[in-house]
Amino acid sequence: LFCRGYYIRARAVDHCVQDFLLKTRSHPRTQILSLGAGFDSLYFRLKDVGLLHHAVVYEVDFPGVARQKAALIRRTEELSALVGDTGGEALGAVTLSGEDYKLLGVDLSELCELERALEAAGLDKGIPTLFIAEVVLTYMEHGRSDAVIQWAAQRFPRACFLLYEQMHPQDPFGRVMQRHFSRLSSALRSLAPYPDGEAQRTRFLEKGWTECSVVDMNEFFTRCVPEEERRRVQALEPFDEYEEWHLKCSHYFVLTASKGMEPPWTPLFPSVTAPRRDGPVGTAGSVTAAACATRPDAPGLRRYGHRSVLLKPNVVLTTGGFGEEDGQHCRVRDFHLLVKHGGGWKAAGVKKENPADGWAGRLYHTVSCLSGSLALVVGGRTSPSRAGLGMLWLKFPETWDASGAEDVSVELVSLSPATEPAALRWRHSTTEVTFKGERYLFVYGGRSAAEPVLGDWCFLHARELSCAAIPVEGPVPEGRHSHSACGWQGGVLVAGGLGAAEQPLGSIFFLRELEHGFRWQPVETSPPLTPRYSHTAHVHDGKLLLVGGVWLHAPSVPGVTVIDLASGVCLDYAVNGEHLGWPLMLHNHSSVLLPEEGELLLIGGGGNCFSFGTHLNPEPVVLSLSDILGSP
After folding, report:
1. Could you read off the pLDDT of 85-144 as tens digits, one per residue?
2. For the residues 43-54, what does the mean pLDDT come to?
3. Cross-sheet strand order for the sheet of 457-461
4. Which residues pair with 101 in a beta bridge?
5. Distance between CA atoms of 435 and 470, rounded to whole angstroms?
6. Residues 173, 545, 287, 341: what is their CA dihedral angle, to the nearest 10 degrees?
7. Helix (H, G, I), strand (E, B), or coil: what is residue 222?
């Protein structure tokens, strides 16, 4: 994720800058003015590949930053050779000057001083000029940043502007993002008045720019980066942080604006002026999220990539994932129980009788409860390059105290062969089905160390754990991982997921039992389901519930989607978590439906973002579903 995050930023800037240089190559002179350039290497990249034949690059930052950068360039032979600096002393605001590179130390908020310094350094207001501001203006008070945007439009008759910044500050990921920058004493001051792409576009048009386009970084990657290049990037390294990648990209945008350019400068494609809106048109209502009544110091509840199952009434088993254990962030090796007792939930421990036997602290596995004392673990990974973890039986005592007063023992039994194809995957689903009166576990999709997306399946006989050859007909679904799968009418409902192009899917399929086998059958919804992945799902009273997940481009985040399986009517409900006091992450979580109470228990959720750190839901949450499902 670290590499991809910086790649997409540099790719967007290079894409737009090179387009400007290409479109203005008939002009004898052009110039680029980088505002708040810091230690950016754009000039050196352009110079090294010969793209600055007729352009001069001006960089501006605080005087102290500019002096440090000038010193670094002077003592680096390769850089000073590209600049061609004579090695003379700094003159006024100019800390370094070459034939096509000028480095100035000026406060951007002092526009009169900035203009005088630029003119003294040779800036020509009459020639085509590209302004660049990469995560710079957002740190200024919005009145001052507005003034910079308006100054550029008023003073330069032929100008282009490239802006890269954050957006969507109020959704859960946006709140984590803001908290991160506040902790660094770098508050995003312009974010509140301009929270999304449309607000930014309106801002530029009102400040004097005549053309303006905005896209978030998910859309930039999909539509502005060639498919061959996307495949190259996706194959560069083992990668499994899809949720944080898509969420980060949905919270950053690239904007291009122009005035006086013929033809108009539109490097992001002419037909798009604002981010796409692929989400639901509106919501049918909301459901309330309330903190679960557990001890605040209950261990093992902050995690993601784990699994939770209802082991027996009022007892929820949670295994695996990445989270907090013994005060550290790590793969969680302990098992945990939540026991409903006295109107609330309390945590209880699980003691492994043979802790070294095959568990390895796996993520993105599945757990299928076959009885109150027996569960089957299938697949999972420790790292994206190590996924051959096989299958395990989790054997609990036939009878045990479910009050949570004492730790419960569990025996881990590794199954052979560990190379069973059904187990060499993660981010898959395992769902119980019936065929001719026999119980099977339908293992479907996921990914492996060799394949980024799997579309195959296996019927595991529940008793023998051998793969059975059961005929399946009908249109085969597109391969996917991070989807949901629920048992229904003896078959399986598969919804959403992430496809081969790392794009969320909006399809739903029902694997329906027939007399001679099964048949894939598409499920149509009205309106069409918003594509998503990393959600959970449950079936209740003929309705499919999709909980949370990640989708792209939508102005909101996924809540609870209810699909009537008889009519296909699809309704979206927002999740109201304002009383929690912390941002509720509805991805990489687990959930357990409690139909008698009309509630949904959410455990864990969140992720590990290279930019903003590890963000985990601190405690389980209960969603009240009685209003949308009817009173229990």
Report:
1. 655 566 778 999 999 999 999 999 999 999 999 999 999 999 999 999 999 999 999 999
2. 93
3. 429-435, 438-444, 457-461, 467-468
4. 57
5. 9
6. -100
7. helix
In sequence order, the β-bridge partners of residue 319 are: 307
Q: What is the pLDDT of residues 343-398, one digit of tens each?
A: 788 888 788 887 666 677 899 999 999 888 899 999 999 988 777 688 888 998 88
CA–CA gap between residue 608 and residue 585 (Å, rounded):
12
Tokens found for residue 445: 């999709």
Amino acid at the residue 30: T
Residue type present at position 34:
S
Report the pLDDT value the prediction gives residue 632, as an integer from 0 to 100: 44
pTM for this entry:
0.93
**Cα separations in angstroms, 181 against 189, 267, 556:** 10, 30, 22
DSSP letter at 201 equals H
Please identify which residue in the block is written with the tokens 């054997």.
395
Structure tokens at 242: 């899809």
- With H, G, I as helix, E, B as strand and everything else as coil, classify residue 384: coil
* CB contact at 8 A, 64 and 35: no
Q: Which of 572, 552, 473, 474 is nearest to 516 (CA)?
A: 473
Report all structural domains of the chain as residue ranges with CATH numbers, in order of start: 1-259 (3.40.50.150), 285-629 (2.120.10.80)
8 A C-beta contact, residue 558 and residue 568:
no
